[in-house]
Design goal:
Mean pLDDT: 87
Order of helices and strands: HEEEEEEEEEHHEHHHHHH
Strand order of the largest sheet: 1-8-3-6-9
Strand content: 15-25%
Number of domains: 2
Structural class: alpha+beta
Shape: globular
Number of strands: 10
Protein name: Helix-turn-helix transcriptional regulator
Pfam family, one: AraC_binding
Number of helices: 9
Low-confidence stretches: 1-7
Largest sheet: 5 strands, antiparallel
Organism: Marinomonas sargassi
CATH class of the largest domain: Mainly Beta
Keywords: DNA-binding, Transcription, Transcription regulation
């Protein structure tokens, strides 16, 4: 990045871009970094080479560990939170160059090759010099690799019905809360059937399954911080390590102790 560009925001750099296909932003987020709600006119590939990102956008919540990267389409309002800090690396792509990667937000698996390609392209963007043909080939390899990756199950739909916002806020803050559906319904002044219908209609899954996904996504942040599997299991509301490990492996396909290795 040229010295004069350091003070420019990402959107200012995008507006000034004439020949560039891709721009980059690299910085280290401190512990507890909370970004503001914003969007961009270009596609964004968001990645943390160290640390874990919690990304909220529209009606979804996504967890992005170093083995994953999130793809956001233009004009998608989002904000990030880094509970334990993160080495933030983000690439922004001119819309007419990457339409094949799709208009939907998604989480990609970051293989060792994709990781090195992201870091190399981000570093190359920051040199401020004219790109060479070899740089363009590097970028094309990255896009080809991303195109071959399936989407991952690290996102959670958030119900938008105003009647359940107290429940959503409470469980986000305290995933181990084991208040039953019936008790929540009484607290919210709803019938159990109505509350069940809201979750099925707005998230596609039942209340119990939704709460379990909240717990498992929250557990990733705790595991990334180095807590033991037993500590994490208890903190997110499981009565035993074995029950937590089984639920974790059903969703993420690896044991919790192996996830960040």
């Amino acid at each position: 990045m040229k010295p004069a560009e350091i003070r420019k925001t990402t959107d200012e750099r995008i507006k000034l871009a004439t020949e560039e296909t891709v721009l980059a932003r690299q910085f280290d987020m401190g512990v507890g970094h909370q970004g503001r709600l914003h969007s961009h006119t270009w596609y964004q590939l968001m990645y943390a080479s160290r640390g874990l990102l919690n990304v909220s956008f529209e009606d979804q919540f996504m967890v992005v560990p170093p083995q994953k990267a999130i793809w956001l389409p233009p004009h998608c309002e989002h904000k990030t939170f880094a509970p334990s800090g993160a080495e933030f690396r983000s690439l922004y792509f001119r819309p007419d160059k990457v339409e094949s990667l799709g208009q939907q937000a998604k989480v990609f698996t970051v293989s060792p090759l994709i990781r090195e390609l992201i870091l190399a392209v981000a570093t190359r963007c920051d040199t401020g010099s004219v790109w060479q043909e070899s740089d363009e080939r590097l970028l094309m390899v990255l896009l080809d690799q991303l195109l071959s990756q399936p989407a991952n199950q690290l996102s959670l739909l958030m119900p938008k019905d105003i009647r359940v916002q107290g429940l959503v806020t409470s469980l986000e803050a305290d995933p181990c809360d084991d208040t039953t559906l019936k008790d929540w319904a009484n607290t919210l002044g709803l019938s159990s059937r109505t509350l069940s219908r809201i979750f099925l209609a707005e998230t596609g899954i039942g209340f119990k399954e939704w709460r379990q996904k909240v717990r498992l996504l929250h557990s990733l942040s705790l595991l990334e911080q180095g807590q033991s599997v037993t500590q994490v299991a208890l903190e997110v509301g499981y009565q035993s390590t074995s029950a937590f490990s089984y639920a974790f492996q059903q969703v993420f396909h690896v044991p919790p102790k192996s996830y960040f290795r």
